[in-house]
Amino acid sequence: MEGQKNDFGQGSVAGNIMAMAVPMTVAQILNVLYNIVDRMYIGHIPGESSLALTGVGLTFPIISMVTAFSNLYGMGGSPLCSIARGEGKLERAEEIMENSFWMLVGTGVILTVFFLAVQKPLLYAFGASDDTISYAVSYLTIYLLGNLFVMVGLGMNPFINAQGFGKVGMVTVGLGAVINLILDPVFIFGLNMGVQGAALATIFSQFCSAVWVLRFLTGKKAILHLHLRRPRMNWALCRQIVSLGTSSFVMNFTNSVVQIACNRQLQIYGGDLYVGVMTILNSIREVLVMPANGLTNGAQPVLSFNYGARKNGRVKQGIRFTTMICVLYTCMAWALTLLFPGFFIQIFNDEPGLLQAGVGAMHIYFFGFCFMALQFSGQAVFVGLGQAKYAVTFSLLRKVVIVVPLTFLLPLIPGVGLYGVFLAEPISNVLGGCACFFTMLAVIWNRKLREDT
Question: What is this structure's pTM?
Fold first, then answer.
């Protein structure tokens, strides 16, 4: 009976995807609120909003690295877990989940100690100035002390979704987001803690999410159960988890690399003001990509399960549906950034100078945003079907091969200057998105998948 629960091999493929995608999209939006809400409140601290917002923005590369390691094990283990469940191998699926958990815990401890030791020189290397370094260090120190909660909550939630409990996964994130939303104004303004209050609210809310995740996965309602006994590591299995999770890791890690490159270039060509603009644009982008990420993350367990069950016709249906919805959504999101740039920017900061600088940068940065749909769809298929090599390749291509070099080269062109930093992103969306999607069609659609007879 347990093996028949949440059977993605039955019923409408689109219905199965949406049943997972809707709560996962809500969860993605709530998840990004952890940092977005912090920035919204920080951007309105009287007398210090601009420098405080820029300082917190400088911590993004390190926070992205923490997220990268969470996804390395969570997004690496959960598709393997879904494939094993589709094959009816429940004991193997549980073993995958347990190995992922202990890798999360071990890595979390190591990252906390390492970044606490080197945070200040790293932040200066990332583009901090003497005016912004105190805000960055104040926020990051507290965040790192709760790093283990962040990694367990983010890394283990995909195993709830992989079992078909999308609504439970949504509650996991929603619980923390609501607590963070309540505590932020209390700590930042009520207790006059500033950026330290924002960080404290974030890690306390992540602690609550982590407790919720562990309680569910060790409880009776789960199909696959996490046994918190002495670690029994299967190193061959760990290598498979890391191999498949590397694409998600690379996507987040290369985000860090891109943020570092952008901040350094903007500090050279525009100073703290334009580093602040990039902080806001990254925040807006995080919000806008969440529905697309929610859809593709919701599609992954459905694709993985049917691929494991050898139902290739249903896999193709899932790919078609996911791509179509992604394209429609990203076109709409692009239109909104063109029509209402000032509205989005003022959510985070309403200083006239920052608003004036941000509108033009925003039009450039989000140009061709619809091509991101091709990247999202292609990556979801590669990861869902366990094609680690392709998933990693296209994660590296868009950010490391295209964005980073262009971030340094485009500002050198006469008449382009600092706007070249913002122009690198849309160019990578077009080139990287097309390369990823059309390779997926050639390799997966035309070779690996065959219609059921």
Answer: 0.65
Residue 374 lies in a domain: yes
Distance separating alpha carbons of residues 350 and 389, to the nearest angstrom: 44
Helix (H) or strand (E) holding 17: helix 13-42
pLDDT digit string, tens, across residues 352-381: 888 888 888 999 999 989 998 999 888 888
Q: Does 268 map to a domain? A: yes
**pLDDT tens across 247-304, in order?**
778 777 777 788 888 888 888 888 878 888 888 888 888 888 888 888 887 888 788 8
Model confidence over 189-199: pLDDT tens digits? 878 887 888 88
Amino acid making up residue 421: V
The verdict on residue 279 lying in a domain is yes
Q: Total structural domains in the chain? A: 1
Examine residue 5 and state whether it is found in any structural domain, yes or no: no
Contacts of 245 (CB under 8 A, 6+ apart): 71, 72, 73, 74, 75, 76, 77
Show Cβ contacts of residue 157 under 8 Å, excluding neighbours closer than 6 positions: 27, 74, 169, 172, 173, 209, 213
> Quick check: helix, strand or coil at residue 31?
helix
Structural domain of 169? 12-448
- Alpha carbons 217 and 350: distance in angstroms, whole number: 44
